[in-house]
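=== Structure Prediction Worksheet ===
Name of assembly: unnamed complex
Input type: mixed (protein and possibly other molecules)
Chain count: two
Listed entries:
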Amino acid sequence: MELSSLILFMVSKMNGERSKNACLHIFRGKKSSQTLQDVQYFNLKPFFSVLSKLDAETYETHLYRLLADGYVKEADGRLYVSKTGLQKVKELDSCYFNGWDYRGNEIVFFHRLALAIQTISYFKEGIKSFMPIQTDREVQLFVKGMARHLPLENKEFPRKIGGELKNALQASGMKDRQKLIIVSRLSGFSITGRTWDQLAEELQMSPLSVYLEFIEGLHRLLDVIHEERDYPFLLQAAEGVKSSLYLTDSADQTRRLFAKGMNVEEIATVRRLKLSTIEDHFVEMAINDKTFPLTDFVLSKQVNEVVLKVEELGTRRLRMLKQEFGELSYFQLRLILGSKLGGGK
Amino acid sequence: MTDLQNLLYEKFGYRNFRPGQENVIRSVLQGKDTIAILPTGTGKSLCYQLPSYLLNGITIVISPLVSLMEDQSSSMRRNGEKRVAALNSFLSFQDKNRILSQIHLYKFIFVSPEMLLQRKVEERLKQLKLSLIVVDEAHCISQWGFDFRPDYLRIGEILGRNRPPVLALTATADLKVIDDITKYLHMEMPVMERHSLDRPNITYVVEQMASDEKTAWIESRLEQTAGPGIIYVASRKRADELASILSRKGFSAAAYHAGKEQVDRSLIQEQYIRGEVEWICATNAFGMGIHKDNIRQIIHEHLPNTMASYIQEVGRAGRDGKPACAVLLYAPEDENITRFIIQNDMPDRNSVLHYTEWLQAGKSLTDAAAMAGMSETAQRVVDFYLSQMPVEEVCTSLDELRKNKEIDLQKMLEIVHSQVCIRKKILNAFGERYDDSRKQCCSICGLTEMDWLWKVASTEPQRKMTYAWEERIDVLLGI
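=== Predicted Assembly ===
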């Protein structure tokens, strides 16, 4: 799988309608209204955010190759597909990206999977402390939480997980080479994962092609995990990975500023909106985004107490809850209800 | 057995201290500022971990490298000390907040100098009861050091006067560097613990050749002599290139540099430590925090900037005490290549003047730096000086700095062209005397009894690394 083939395919869809950076923005998953419209209108959702770290230089090298080969033409700053280009598009293998649903989170899933497999592998050997291959604390905490519910001491457990992974990979319909790439990135007690360079060398492909096949493979694997209910372990590792974020544009802008590290007040100042509007956006995020960091706003102890109280009282009415939890603001209560119970009244 | 030894055994499982450790620990416990110059691999981190258990309060460890910080904090966690936090700029916003909000629950807080300068972090740390401040790789504070980090210079300011004792740790420091450490960390009459830099089991070799002969030399070296080893090269590009040449020739080699993604860097380290890969082609980004005892060879394909960085890199060989060899490949043009790299890092008078003009014209710091042609590091150095002194003095200081870098380079060249014992030259450069003579010393003293270096005819068959995908899952999970 070549990056240039993907570009050619995308150009054939947007034929003459867009400038050369449109594809780059889609690969990188730029959340501008222009790019979001483009992927909808031209049916390019699968490619959205597939290569979030693609640098302009690499992109242009591949694009120029297409221009030099005469598959793509540039006129008035727009890209067109040529007749030979169109012929070439017909010969391309179909691909099965699902960037719209996963938006780069497939990597999060994989990092969790890799650490979980490493953990299982070491526990099998009776080793409970080892150098984790994933240094990301977020991933480490997630897997730690996951491991608490796994029968790590059970002798048969690794075999069960191995079976589940094999079945899911098989059911996903990806190529054998992709299965090999995915499992080669995993590390365990007696074997260490391979780097992109090493895989490229072993498979006689460019590192970028290896990476693209890896991402597509993960998308297919995640699709299977979500569609069928036969993969409980993998589904656990995939928690919150599938994007259900269909926020309004304005809320999404707020979400982006939040992701950059701004707090509610700062966002209101920057966006020149009322504090209450921004708070509404946060509630929207809490409802829609399973990975919303609720504990940045309230203590997990308070969350539990509110959830229990809601069950006890059988109501989600804010005023009643506010009487019970004087120390929590209305905003905090709405966040808890949004995140845990899908909203309040 | 002393109380300290009991604690050593109880917490770390060792019966005895390594040379230097106990003196450092006693000095820290007496509340004295301390500078410890101990060779890498001699358990520097124990020098602060152990006394921390006897002190009532939090220990801050300021550490320049994120990878080093991660490595130390996770190795402490593995050894059962869970009250460890690492604050660095790679943390997500949420993580940072989570750590800051519960920071009082930790016993050891690793922090990068950039983070320390953030107001939020600074304020939070001020509320805590600190018992010890450790500055790791303290040579980074010195503008004469090879790793100068301007952010380090501000540590002293932030700590203020009313502070717990400071422990400065480093592997290499000459007198100038020690002066800087004392001055910028505002240390008061620091106790100095220093241990000889001599590594008797390392043999030093200089090989003169033309630049275009180096690749072939390395190939035949790898064919004939024993690994594992590290080949230090001048650039990321060269690391990739050399690794791919070598692996195409059937050697087990991989590249390592800061341009690789984090997971790949961990994988390479892990493969190297386990012996799945034998040779690493690396920039100077590789090494700190790598615990591998049986490295037999360090090859430098380029001329390092300073003796200190050379010693640090070479010192990674032979930690197991068995013989090891350090080879420096030198071609006549290397002198100018290294000089160019050094000078290029250092802003000159013109670019400083341009920079200040652009700033006065209202440009942002980054834009002004870009237009004056200064690198990011250069900009940080200049910013620091500009905040301390007038422009003219900044220029003079930079000239001075440039002169000193040239002196460092000349010292390195003295080794290359040395007519006398290389070991002696190196040790003298750090103010140590050496009048001994021993076998396997260096290429000047003569390389006798080097049999260990040559490969035994048949090496054992390589462990199988390639599997079909299903087979690999079985191996992974031990099924």
